[in-house]
Amino acid sequence: MTITEKILAAHSGSKEVFPGQFIEANVDLILANDITGPLAIEQFNKAGANKVFDPGKIVLVPDHFTPCKDIKSAEMVRLLRNFSKRHGVRFYEIGKVGIEHALLPEEGLIHAGDLVIGADSHTCTYGAIGAFSTGVGSTDVAFAMITGKIWLKVPSTIKFIYKGRCGRYVGGKDIILYTIGKIGVDGARYMAMEFTGEAIEDLSMDDRLTICNMAIEAGGKNGIIAPDRITEEFLVSVASEKGIFYKSDKDAKYENIIEIDVGTIEPQVSAPHLPSNAKDVREFSNVRIDQVVIGSCTNGRISDLRKAAMIAKGRTVHPEVRTIIIPATQKVYQQALKEGLIDVFVESGCVISPPTCGPCLGGHMGVLGKGEVAIATTNRNFIGRMGHPESMVYLSNPEVAMASAIMGRISHPDEVKHGY
Amino acid sequence: MVIKGKVWKFGDHINTDDIIAARYLNTTDIKELASHCMETIFPDFSRKIEKGDIIVAGENFGCGSSREHAPLAIKGCGISVVIAKSFARIFFRNAINIGLPIIETPFTEQISQGDILEIDFDTGTMVNLTRGETGTFMKYPDFLQQIIESGGLMSWVKEKHIR
Question: Quick one: average pLDDT of A94-113?
Fold first, then answer.
């Protein structure tokens, strides 16, 4: 069996499961946010339920339209807050809250071998810690809050083998954009994406989280990386227990096996309006930009801010570019303060935002107007994703985004050396 | 169950931001969500369609976010069924869970904008009344059929878990 099949079997009381099989699995953690949570709570109430199955296994993270952008969003968060008080489930208030997929691992709520569901498509992020983790809908969350279970179709798996060493300014974001570019936005539809190989073993937990975060952009059900020494070190630093370290069997069956030499990958940029439009950054060097966003559940962690600050240090952003930095959690923000990164950003003319998904989904805190162009370290560049239907979003890693902020157009980090 | 309606044709990879833009997600009011359905790529869609009409699309319909507001907006504006070559997985499960009928079939290219379709879910047949063509589609596996027949996941959970 693959690692995904082993975790699903363990959670459905079976010795073995097979791709295509429908199972009812026990969940270890259920997540909802301020957009999807209210719908789940409505369904929960409508079903006549009066008790959650286990308050300790439910987390509500109001991170999308918070700090609340308007009265309607304040009402939605109020609903979550009240539900949390009534049922004793975890709720992260402003001051504690961070972007959900950065926050939950940091809080030690995810362990290897867990089965996690979340009413947010990027819940697949936690596969980086060796968990089976997948995005579901609000009704699924309501069902799981009542029963502790989820219905799932066991996915088949694509195995990706990454060979070689990443070049300069190439990291997890470039690997996943390149991969999505290769297989398309539905290249892994309904399937598990198992990321393996020496290049993955070399990567930090932050880079691994970035890769698994975007499995959904290839249509994947989950992304997963077998736990190793780096996973263990990470878990020891954040959680009271490590969980179970599963590994795919040598004779595990795969839908497909794809080999990629990361040594040949240049920093990637995905052009509007699909994440699969990934090409070398240098192919976009004539694209002028109005806004840069560095943050999100994809690239708002401390190592992302370090990479952006390395480029920004001693330089100023282009006068016609609005550069928004969003540390994904309070801990990330504090660490960035300690390391002097926030100073670097402010000195160079960036603005620092509280943790929020805000601009990534065109919600608030950096919405684009008609015809405006942004480069962002986020995960989606669909039509109108960051605001006006006639605005455009390019996706990249943090170094490319910051280099572009300085140059005023999409740029390779090497270009900033020459000034503008 | 038999459905008859006019076809509104869409392409591949219609994503959840196309179906309902995130800026409208500060509500769970289905009528309000429905009024913005497809707005980004098809202004005034919700006002142009009639109750019972049908969406026909290509590959990977509903890709992107997990927002259940997407199938709710489609259902809320009166669309009776979505037919596509393939569905993104979260949209697929959300549609099943909330009771929005969906059909996966490779034959969407033979259906055009404005065609009138008649669909019989009990027999799994689809008749294109405009072109005089008849086709069949696969029923869902038993497990999903049970959820659909209960009227969605929450009705199913009531039957099974809450008494």
Answer: 98
A-B C-beta contacts closer than 8 Å: 138
Please name the residues in contact with A310: beta carbons below 8 A apart, sequence gap of 6 or more.
Answer: A399
Query: Mean per-residue pLDDT for A90-104?
Result: 98
Helix (H, G, I), strand (E, B) or coil at A288: strand
Note the pLDDT of residue A420: 43
The mean pLDDT value for A327-345 works out to 98
- Give yes or no for a contact between A146 and A39, defined as CB atoms under 8 angstroms apart: no
- What pLDDT, on a 0 to 100 scale, did the predictor assign at position B1? 85
CA distances from B112 to A191, B45, B54, B58, B121 (A): 31, 17, 11, 12, 21
Cross-chain Cβ contact B157/A47 below 8 Å: yes
- The CATH code for residues A3-260 is 3.30.499.10
- Identify the structural domains of chain B with CATH numbers, from first to last: 2-160 (3.20.19.10)
Q: In the Cβ-directed half-sphere of A145, how many Cα atoms lie within 13 Å?
A: 36
Over chain A, what is the mean pLDDT?
A: 97
Contact B65 A136 (CB under 8 A): no
Measure CB to CB from residue B158 to each of A48, A72, A363 and give the nearest one.
A48
Is B17 within 8 Å of A382 when comparing Cβ atoms? yes
Indicate yes or no: CB of A76 within 8 angstroms of CB of B28. Answer: yes
pLDDT at B161: 67
Which residues in chain A have their CB less than 8 angstroms from residue B90's CB? 121, 135-137, 216
When pLDDT is averaged across residues A227-235 and rounded to a whole number, the result is 98
Contact: A138, B68; criterion CB under 8 Å: yes
Is residue A254 pLDDT above 60, yes or no? Answer: yes
Domain spans of chain A, in order of start: 3-260, 269-418
pLDDT in tens, B96-122: 999 999 999 999 999 999 999 999 998
Whether B154 sits inside 8 A of A43 (CB atoms) is yes
* Nearest CB partner across the interface for A135, out of B59, B60, B90: B90
- The residue of chain B with its CA nearest to that of A364 is B23
pLDDT in tens, B39-83: 999 999 999 999 999 999 999 999 999 999 999 999 999 999 999
ipTM score of the complex? 0.94
* d(C-alpha A77, C-alpha A61), whole Å: 9
Q: What is the DSSP letter of B45?
A: H
Q: Sort out which chain B residues have CB atoms less than 8 A from A221's CB and list them.
A: 89
Residue A11, pLDDT score: 98
Residues with Cβ within 8 Å of A198's Cβ and at least 6 positions away in sequence, in order, are A162, A163, A164
Q: Which residue of B22, B41, B63 is in closest CB contact with A383?
A: B41
pLDDT reported for residue B158 = 80
Q: If DSSP codes are grouped into helix, strand and coil, which group holds residue B20?
A: coil
Distance CA B163, CA B161 (A): 7
CATH number for domain A269-418, candidates 3.40.50.10610, 3.30.499.10, 3.40.50.970, 3.40.50.2300: 3.30.499.10
- Answer positive or negative: Cα dihedral of A76, A31, A82, A300: negative
Domains A3-260 and A269-418 share a fold: yes
